[in-house]
Specification:
single chain, alpha+beta, Immunoglobulin-like, Rossmann fold, six-stranded mixed β-sheet, five-stranded antiparallel β-sheet, 11 helices, about 30% helix, about 20% strand
Length: about 475
Amino acid sequence: MTTNSIALFFMTDFSIPKPNHNKALKTLAPPSLAGKGAGGLGFSPLIALAAILLNLAPTPAIATTVKIDRWSTTSDRVTLKVKVLNNNRIPILGLEEQAFRVKTKDKFGNPHTLQSPEIRVLSPEESHPQQTYVAILLDMSGSMKQKDTARVKKLDGAVNAIRGFINLVKAENLPVDISIIPFGEGCNHSYQVTTKTIEDNFKSASNSELEKQLDELAKVPVCAATNIYQPLTETVKYLRNRFPPSPSEIDAQDKPLPKLSVILLSDGFHVYRNNEPQQFENVINLLKQNSQITVHTLGYGESLAHLRNRAICFKYIPDDRLTVDDVANGCRLPGSDIQEFIVDEDRLKKIAQTTGGIHEFPEDAEAVAKSLKTFFTTLREYEIIYQQPGSDRATIHPTKIEINSPDRGINTLQSETENIRMSNFIYRALTFTQRLPLLILTVFIGLVGVLPFIQWSKKLKQQSDL
């Protein structure tokens, strides 16, 4: 897939479903549709063909969000880092420079609309990468020894996907530091997450120690219980304390603040259920207070609905009331502990949504690797550079981005307004027409000053010859 397009794939399952012995709990088809022939409302080859053709038809990825993620100023030049996201929070690539407009105001409040060639737009692939810190929280609970729908052990699938993510970062030579943070507790192979373990594990993506750490983790006979909230809380607090937020996007050393991301990879749910809603609310409040940190979540395993359908449940649980506790307490899998297959989709989704991150729920190792590739695209953004009209030292200019790209399904999409504060020191390079008179004047003054000196020097020489 090229970076100039995003394709959406639809899959239709025509396989014969496995028999479900829990027949009494199945939802029955409406009588009006039962037993229909080819000419009725039921299945027919014509309908099947139409469905296939519809699924194969290209569908544009509609952008729903454009955001000025961060900004910096040098003299009167402004640099904006801009994200363009679809409705799944996935970056949209391949937009042309002509699609972007900068709407800003000068120091007198007069509006200005800038577009190419007044602005320069660098694509995510061309933009200057920014220092980024990525903390990868890896679930090491006992359920990771289970096999996914492709019969791959989940721990192997997760480790290989993380390895692929690191290789992508290295291939692009991005300034990214990565901390692989295993978590899980309650057995001989427990992993407590503390400030020290997070900091000690941070290494440059090119550091071979990351590969060695992954090799060691892949050999662990996982057995721990899943505690999601404590490791996530500790990681967010660490990043907040190490890189305090700044409204100007510039730290005390006049360097742009780094991007901060967390990737939470888990195949389970938070096992400490006593007062779980309050625990979760505390996590959400912490994330809201630290909006500079983006959390992407990856729930590795089958959906609750799929798990319910293949389990034996004491009563039928409709989709709109399907929860972790209902499945854990009301269903069972013959020969297996059903809790080892439960993924808390709702909690993981809300965690990502709160921070503007991406949430993915892959069921096999290949899909996990694709999800991490999607997360990788968030490391780059569009970069817009322009000269701020009517600026002066420390002036503030309300600015927003507008995008129009009808062929990509984007029509007048605007960002929220960001107040751009100019540098305390403004230096403006003079144009050639401004420099030319100064050059002529300088030469004239030089000649006027030098000619008398030359005449005086000749006169002295003549006098000395006498």
